[in-house]
Fold this protein.
Amino acid sequence: MNKTLVIFPLSFIALLGLSGCELEAKTTESKDVLWTIQQTASQDFSRAASALVGSTTSFCQNKASLSETQQAWLNAMKAWAPLQGANVGNEQATALSWQIQFYPDKKNTTGRQMAKLLQQGGEYSSDSIGKESVAVQGLGAMEWLLFDPSNQGKVETHCALMKAVAQRIESSAQDLSRSWSTNPWQDVEAKQKDTDALRLLAAQLDATMKAIELPMGKPGYPKPYQAQSWRSQQSLTVLRENIVHLQSLYQQTLEPALEAHKQAELAKRLSAHWVTAIDSIPSGTGLKSLLESKEGYRSMITLLNNLEYIKLALHDEAGPALGMIVGFNSTDGD
């Protein structure tokens, strides 16, 4: 028989002195933390995607520079970072994530299919792009148009395709935001919310670690072109956004849950290791030059080791302390 585990936050005694309405408001506020995080992130990404459409349109009308549109793309990519792998509790988000970012792209599918689209010519629109492979519908496709060496000096000649891809990203972002408009945890018990928070953190941490491991390859044989955002040389920028978000997710969800379960020492230790992990992220924006030097490669091993510690602590300590089992599943692409 399943037993219901009720988690009493540390402020529970103080809540006893509140009126019924105040107590309900406080409970609802606490209950919706995980949903609020996902909803806010999706709204931020939707706004960034719309800004990318606006900047792309202005560039194609000679009202904005290429660098301004490239920055708008980077802003969208950074806004997407907190949502990478964040599909727990939302099946629609899982389906949308691939068309927003096709990664990993081990066979340069995006580059090959984008080149083919340009060769075909014709009328491009958000709807027509939506009928193509997911490899040409998202942020990676836009990055190819804005940053790939083969396009340098002739980006403006691809404006029709650029506007269509940007509009497709905006449409997907709006769908994603709508998918989080309803709280999937509205009627679930405290233990299930904590379980999903742990699953979400584990899934995103796993995705982040894979994004480090793939371009690292083997010592002496790095694969920098397997990094996300390698064309724009912003791999570290996006990685930093990922890890800072993971720290915030932990602080807002699992840390108070651990403290409520009298696991203050573990909560504090994990909190300290998130700081260590962030501090160990190398400076700079790109990965290629970093991986090509012994010192730079070692710095990425250090970062990976720091994240591995957190991964093991979540699996071996936090999960059991909260009465849960957590798994780490990699996401792979063609």
Remarks:
- The domain at 34-179 is CATH 1.20.1420.20 (A middle domain of Talin 1).
- The first helix runs from residue 12 to 15.
- Confidence is low (pLDDT under 50) at residues 1-30, 330-334.
- The chain has two domains: 34-179, 188-321.
